[in-house]
Amino acid sequence: MLLETEGLTKRFGGITAVDGVDFALETGELCSIIGPNGAGKTTFFNLLTGVLEPSDGRIRFDPESGGDAGGASAGADGTGSAIDITAASPDETALAGIHRSYQITNLFPTLSVLENVRVAAQASRGSDSWKLWRNVADFEDHYAEATRILERIGLAGEAETVTQNLSHGEKRSLEIGVALAGNPDLLLLDEPTAGVSSEGVDDVVALIEDVAEDHSVMLIEHNMEVVMDISDRIAVLHRGELIADGPPEDVRGDEAVQEAYLGGYGREGSEAAGDGSDDEATDGDVADGDAAADGGRRVRAGGEPR
């Protein structure tokens, strides 16, 4: 098992944003997290990546689990080679192998496209990568990795373009490229198609499918056509609780999911719910915006940076 949560809970004063979630992700899966606004989706991502500290519960991550359906061999405590990342900071979770993109664009707008990825590649090597006295070949390695990533995400031709001059869809693809730096074991994508034109959505979806060929992926997404088309599995949050988890067809036909969120998606004569935007304002996910603004510093309940 690559990732596992047990009783994961986050409270903001009297509001429980994530409520006792037991969740497990196998290596190689592409799992979509869906639910109505305020369901706790981005808060869940923030807990997994160390931006928020859980009120209760545990998070375990096992990058050595490989591709076996059963994960690594269990140890005496039943956790195998998994490490406990419940109290890990954002930089610690990133170094462990969990990278993410944010709901709010989190790029350096005045740097070139290549430099954005190069900086991410350098950061993925840990604090030693920023030492003054180091082999210049290391920088060449970072640029080589960044160039490979740009080729993969279709932005090699824009390498020297100032990032703020990209289209919104191109910025979304670049965010995925930045998250790929360092070759993470797990990639978390927070609304990767939000605000992207209908023409650009196909490009972003194709990129996600390509990335999922050799990475485990979790994404928050409101475009139900995208979710149903690309997901191996769908997990549904409602009022902080996990109310459904399974293959797309099973989740689409689940009555509780229909009532809570889908609003008849997939039924004859009905339209998909969701408009491609999710402010998550009611469940404390304002911390996501704070994380983007302050460089991903851990945030305590109430929004105070740690």
UniProtKB/TrEMBL annotation:
SUPFAM superfamilies: P-loop containing nucleoside triphosphate hydrolases. Residues 3-264 form the ABC transporter domain. InterPro entries: AAA+_ATPase, ABC_AA/LPS_Transport, ABC_transporter-like_ATP-bd, BCA_ABC_TP_C, P-loop_NTPase. CDD domains: ABC_Mj1267_LivG_branched (cd03219). Residues 276-288 have a biased composition (Acidic residues). Residues 295-306 have a biased composition (Basic and acidic residues). Keywords: ATP-binding, Nucleotide-binding, Transport. Residues 58-77, 263-306 are annotated as: Disordered. GO terms for molecular function: ATP binding; ATP hydrolysis activity. GO terms for cellular component: plasma membrane. PANTHER family: CONSERVED COMPONENT OF ABC TRANSPORTER FOR NATURAL AMINO ACIDS, CONSERVED COMPONENT OF ABC TRANSPORTER FOR NATURAL AMINO ACIDS-RELATED. This is ABC transporter. It comes from Halorubrum californiense DSM 19288.
